[in-house]
Structures are given as C-alpha cells and as structure tokens.
Amino acid sequence: xxxxxxxxxxxxxxxxxxxxxxxxxxxDADVDVVLxxxxxxxxxxxxxxxxxxxxxxxxxxxLPYSALLAQGRVVRDRAVEVDAxxxxxxxGEAITADYVVLATGSTYPFPAKSNAHDAEDAMDNYRxxxxxxxxxxxxxxxxxxxxxxxxxxxxLSKWPDKHxxxxxxxxxxxxxxxxxxxxxxxxxxxxxxxxxLVLGVGLRQLPPTVSAEHAxxxxxxxxxxxxxxxxxxxxxxxxxVSDYLSGDLAVARQPDGFVTxxxxxxxxxxxxxxxxxxxxxxxxxxxxALGKLVRRKSFTFSGLRRSSKNMALVFAxxxxxxDNAFVVVPADGELHISLCGGFELGVVDELACQCGx
Length: 357
Ligand SMILES: Cc1cc2nc3c(=O)[nH]c(=O)nc-3n(C[C@H](O)[C@H](O)[C@H](O)COP(=O)(O)OP(=O)(O)OC[C@H]3O[C@@H](n4cnc5c(N)ncnc54)[C@H](O)[C@@H]3O)c2cc1C
Hints:
The protein is α/β, with parallel strands linked by helices. The chain has 3 domains: 3-38 and 77-108 and 238-281, 3-Layer(bba) Sandwich (FAD/NAD(P)-binding domain), CATH 3.50.50.60; 119-234, FAD/NAD(P)-binding domain, CATH 3.50.50.60; 286-355, no CATH class. Helix content is 22%, strand content 24%. The chain is built from 8 helices and 22 strands. The protein has helices at 18-27, 48-53, 119-134, 146-158, 180-193, 290-296, 302-307, 347-354; strands at 10-14, 32-36, 41-43, 62-64, 73-75, 79-82, 86-89, 94-96, 99-102, 106-107, 138-142, 163-168, 196-199, 217-220, 226-229, 231-234, 239-240, 259-260, 273-275, 280-281, 311-317, 324-330. The chain has a 5-stranded parallel sheet, covered by helices on one side. It has a 4-stranded parallel sheet with strand order 13-12-11-16, covered by helices on one side. A 3-stranded antiparallel sheet has the order 6-7-8, with no helix packed on it. Helix 1 (18-27) links the parallel strand 1 and strand 2. The termini are close together. Residues 284-357 have low confidence and may be disordered. The chain binds flavin-adenine dinucleotide (FAD). Flavin-adenine dinucleotide is lined by residues 14-20, 36-39, 45-46, 48-49, 78-79, 103-106, 108, 112-113, 147, 241, 244, 277-278, 290, 326-328, 338-343.
C-alpha cells in the first residue's frame, strides 16, 4: 500500500498456525499486522508424530515467532471476544482492527497436536510420551484416519517389533474423499508393516487408562472381541476453534464450530473479516487441497520451505478429480504416510486485494 494514500490499515490475525503465519508474513510490509497467538512458538504440526518417536526431532517443530515479522507485532495472548472491528484478549487488552483474519485452526488429541503454550512444556510432554511408548509392547490406535495411519507407520519405523492394532468403526482406512486404490495401497502397506487392522467395528468403551501413558488394559469391541494393549492413542477428534466469535460475527459460527465463509474466504456479511485454514467451513472443491492453491499461487509455501531444511513437498495423485492433492513429508526421514489436511493459503492474495495492497 502506498503511504500517501493514508494510514496503513491494521490487520489482526488471530492464530499463528500455518495459515495465520503465512498471512501475517505476506502482509507485514504493507499493513500493520498484529498476530495474536497464545503459544510462544509456531508448531510445525505435520512433524509431530515423527517427533513422538524421535525426540531429537522436537527442536525442528517448535519455531519461535521472534523472527517472523519485520514490522508487525506478535502478541502472546488468546482472543476471547472477536467482532468485526475489535479483538479482546484474555489479558483484557482490546485491539481495534480494520481487517480481521480468523486463523485459529482446530484442536486434536495429543500427540498429533499439543495444547501446551510453552514450547519447553510441549517438548517435555512429547519426551514423556516417548518414554511411555518405548516400554509398551502392544499399542492400540483408535481411529484409522490419516493420523492413525501415520502414527502406525512412525511407531513401526522406530520399533518394528511392537504390535500395533489400528481400529476404526469405518469399514476402511483413511475416511472419506480418497480413491479406493489409494485405500487399498495403504491397507497393503500397513499389513506389510505388521499392523493389525480391526475395521468396521467400534469399542464398547474407550480404554480406561490415560491415552499416551503406559498401562496395560483390555477393551471389548462391539462384536465382543477383547483387545489387550499396553498403551493407546486417540486418533480421531478434530474440533474447530471459533468459540470467541461475538457480536454480529457469532452467527457465522456453525453448530459444529466451523466458520461459514464465501469463495474469497470472507465471513458472510463482513467484507473485512476472513476465516482461513482448519476453522473455515468451505463448500467448494478446492477447500482442503492446499496443493491446488500452492500450484496456482506459488509464493505461499516459501515460509514453510525455509522453516525446516528437512521438509520437502511431495505431490501425489490422491483424489477423484484427477488433480493433485498436497502431501508433505520430512525429506530426510521415512515418514511413511502423511496426507492432505486442510488449509487455504491462497487467501493471502484475496486478502491483499481487499486491503488494497
Ligand atoms: C499429525 C498431523 C499431520 C498432518 N499432516 C498434514 C500434511 O501432511 N499435509 C497437510 O496439508 N496437512 C496436514 N495436517 C493438517 C494441518 O496440520 C492443518 O490443516 C493445519 O495445521 C491447519 O492450519 P491452521 O493455521 O488453520 O490451524 P492450526 O495449525 O491449528 O493453528 C491455529 C493456531 O491458532 C491458535 N489459537 C487457537 N485459538 C486461539 C485464540 N482464541 N486466540 C489466538 N490464537 C488461537 C493456536 O494456538 C494455533 O497456533 C496434519 C495435522 C496433524 C495433526
């Protein structure tokens, strides 16, 4: 934006995950960016399961925000009340905003995601879980979606002799939207690794022990089969974070927590408010395939490329439409399976347009 055209707009970005960080960086030179994030570090989430089985990987997935913005500021706090022009933080501070970007993502049970706000605490939690896992011979993974599959691969790449059971209520691995031949290939890879697949059956109750802690238990499936294991991990439960929406933004929050947006990721009725990434509910075909947007808007991934020398982009033909979906894996390791999640960094262009930059 040209300085002569008046004061720079203030863009408050709420959440410093993949989406928020990309938007904040892209706009930093041209508008006043305020990034609100309770954690002290960006979490390179897609490496979390590798870090669980290899704690030496931990420093690579917690990246301090200190060097993120040249001009804007990162406010270490949590947004508790957000309307179209005002963001109230847990500390009580209120920030007036010309534009608001909701990038608060989603929660997921540990170890796929971590709740800890301090990187040191989070790393301690991963190290503790690693230690518990080391001593467990039998592992039960409840949920055979992308996280369960990936965790099975990680555990067996580190400890080939552990017995891993992957259980899901669904009849097949992976959840919806993936081609049958991909599912078949993954099933085969899992079987080849020695994973015991228990599909099409649920548990009468979740294990009585705390997830990620070593403690032997027996659970019973709905069909009456007993499974005994020494540790279990919950591999289901994505919950979008949007409980802070207030005033006239509150109506954009759907009953399931996702935020309703239009094609330019704007919250309905508010040209100055955007929702991106996991918290946004998108109804068009490109909604979750980052790769499609990356190919169209190549700038978007430079930050992630820089943030870890060990990360590489891999494109794989995953979906029915014949387009490539996005997969990212650590390049130096053998992360067995890492699938497409959902965030839409293409919004940066749209937002930049809206801000007149
Ligand atoms: C184990 C694992 C592997 C994955 N692998 C892949 C992959 O290979 N490819 C892929 O495309 N996707 C992958 N995903 C999915 C991907 O991580 C998500 O789609 C992505 O993290 C979404 O980014 P986001 O910025 O929307 O939200 P998030 O990454 O969830 O970030 C949201 C941020 O908002 C902050 N926040 C929350 N509430 C508030 C508040 N009230 N105020 C301020 N800040 C707040 C949080 O602390 C967090 O830092 C994987 C996910 C997991 C768990």
